[in-house]
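Hi support team,

I've been running sequence recovery on a batch of backbones for a student project. Most finish fine, but this one hangs at about 90% for roughly twenty minutes before it completes. I'm not sure whether the input is malformed or the queue is just slow. I've pasted the C-alpha cells below so you can try to reproduce it. Let me know if you need the job ID as well.

Thanks,
M.K.
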C-alpha cells in the first residue's frame, strides 16, 4: 500500500435514497483535510475531482424504485472510472450515498478478475444492503449494492457484471438494521455476518482478523466499504440513516489499524456523509481520521481536533 499512488474520486451521487445532502459529501471530505492527512503520511495523492454520471437513458422504473435511471447512469460511470483508477493506484471513492458501491465494487471485482485474483469485500455498515429491486419496500437503491455485485437476480437495468463477488468473500461487520427479506436472503447465502450483538459479546478484532486470514490465504484483493452509519450516531451524526448502537470511536479506529497492519486493502468507499446534518464538521473529521488510521497514522500521532 505504501508505494501505491492514492487516487481520490469524488462521487456526488445522491439518488440512492430520498433524503438529500450526500452530494456534498466529497467536498466535505476535502474541507475536513483528507488530502492533507494522507499527504502528511507520505502518500502520493491525486485528486481526480468529482465524477459525473454517464448519459441517462429513459427507462420505466416499476414502483417503488426511486431514480432508477440516474442510479444506473452513475453505476456505468463508476465502472469505467473505478477500473482506470485501480490500474493507476489505490482508489478512494468519496461519496455520495451507498448506491455508489454498485459501481465501485463492480469495478474492483472486474479489476481483480483482470489480475486473476479474487475480490473480497469488508462491509462496515448498519445495514446489509442486500435487497434486490424486487424485494425493496422503500425503493431506495442504496439498499441494493451487495445484492447486485454478488449476482442476485433483478438487476436487468444495470450494466452486466464482468465479474461477480463470491458471497463467501463478503464479511459484514456492524449490522443492526436488517429487513426480513434481507435476513432470509442472507441466511441462504455464504456471506459472513458479525452483527453488533456478536461484536458486543466477542469483540471486533478477532472476527476481522479471521476474515483477513482468509483474504491473505487466497491472495485476494480487499475492498473496504465504510458507511458513516457503521459508527454510533453519538459520534457520527451526519447520516440520514442513523441507527443507535453502532461502533465506538475506538472500535472504528481499531478496525482501521488492523486493516493497515494487514497490508491487504486495495480500495475504499467513504459513503453516506451528509454534511448538512453534521455538527460543526465532526463526522467528516472522524471519517478523515479513520482513513488516516487505515493508511498508517498511529494512536499517539493523532492530532487534537478543536471544534
Amino acid at each position: 500500500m505504501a508505494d501505491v499512488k492514492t487516487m481520490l474520486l469524488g462521487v456526488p451521487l445522491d439518488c440512492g435514497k430520498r433524503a438529500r445532502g450526500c452530494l456534498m459529501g466529497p467536498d466535505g471530505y476535502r474541507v475536513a483535510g483528507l488530502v492533507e492527512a494522507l499527504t502528511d503520511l507520505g502518500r502520493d495523492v491525486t485528486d481526480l475531482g468529482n465524477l459525473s454520471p454517464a448519459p441517462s437513458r429513459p427507462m420505466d422504473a416499476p414502483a417503488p424504485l426511486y431514480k432508477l435511471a440516474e442510479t444506473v447512469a452513475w453505476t456505468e460511470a463508476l465502472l469505467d472510472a473505478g477500473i482506470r483508477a485501480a490500474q493507476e493506484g489505490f482508489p478512494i471513492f468519496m461519496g455520495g450515498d451507498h448506491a455508489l458501491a454498485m459501481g465501485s465494487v463492480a469495478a474492483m471485482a472486474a479489476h481483480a478478475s483482470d489480475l486473476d485474483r479474487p475480490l473480497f469485500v469488508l462491509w462496515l455498515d448498519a445495514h446489509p444492503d442486500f435487497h434486490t429491486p424486487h424485494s425493496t419496500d422503500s425503493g431506495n437503491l442504496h439498499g441494493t449494492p451487495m445484492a447486485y455485485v454478488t449476482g442476485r437476480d433483478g438487476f436487468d437495468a444495470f450494466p452486466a457484471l464482468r465479474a461477480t463477488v463470491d458471497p463467501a468473500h463478503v464479511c459484514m461487520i456492524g449490522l443492526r438494521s436488517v429487513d426480513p427479506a434481507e435476513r432470509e436472503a442472507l441466511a441462504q447465502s455464504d456471506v459472513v455476518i458479525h452483527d453488533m450483538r456478536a461484536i458486543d459479546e466477542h469483540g471486533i478484532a478477532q472476527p476481522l482478523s479471521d476474515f483477513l486470514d482468509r483474504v491473505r490465504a487466497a491472495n485476494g484483493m480487499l475492498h473496504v466499504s465504510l458507511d458513516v452509519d457503521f459508527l454510533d450516531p453519538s459520534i457520527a451524526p451526519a447520516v440520514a440513516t442513523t441507527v443507535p448502537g453502532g461502533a465506538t470511536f475506538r472500535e472504528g479506529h481499531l478496525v482501521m489499524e488492523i486493516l493497515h497492519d494487514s497490508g491487504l486493502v486495495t480500495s475504499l468507499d467513504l459513503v453516506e456523509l451528509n454534511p448538512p446534518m453534521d455538527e460543526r464538521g465532526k463526522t467528516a473529521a472522524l471519517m478523515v481520521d479513520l482513513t488516516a488510521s487505515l493508511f498508517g497514522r498511529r494512536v499517539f500521532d493523532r492530532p487534537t481536533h478543536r471544534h
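--
Follow-up from support: It reproduced on our side and the slowdown came from queue contention, not your input. Residues 6-297 form a domain with the Arginase; Chain A fold (CATH 3.40.800.10). No action needed from you.
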